[in-house]
Write a structure and sequence with these properties.
This protein has one domain. Helices cover 55% and strands 0% of the residues. By secondary structure, the chain is mainly α. Pfam families: Lipoprotein_19.
Amino acid sequence: MRKEAIFAVGCAGLALGGCIQVKAPDKPIEINLNVKVQQEVVVRLQRDAQDLIQNNPELFPQ
């Protein structure tokens, strides 16, 4: 009984395996990465300005 079931499942798998087609696309795959870099630049400028103010307090009186 078990061998017959395995055989039946195997035959069904082979029969269904012929129905699947894998085809390469005609056009190249395009990956659009819209990444905003503004936040990183602002943080760097803020840190640089903070360092400048701390190292040269006479330039920026409070």
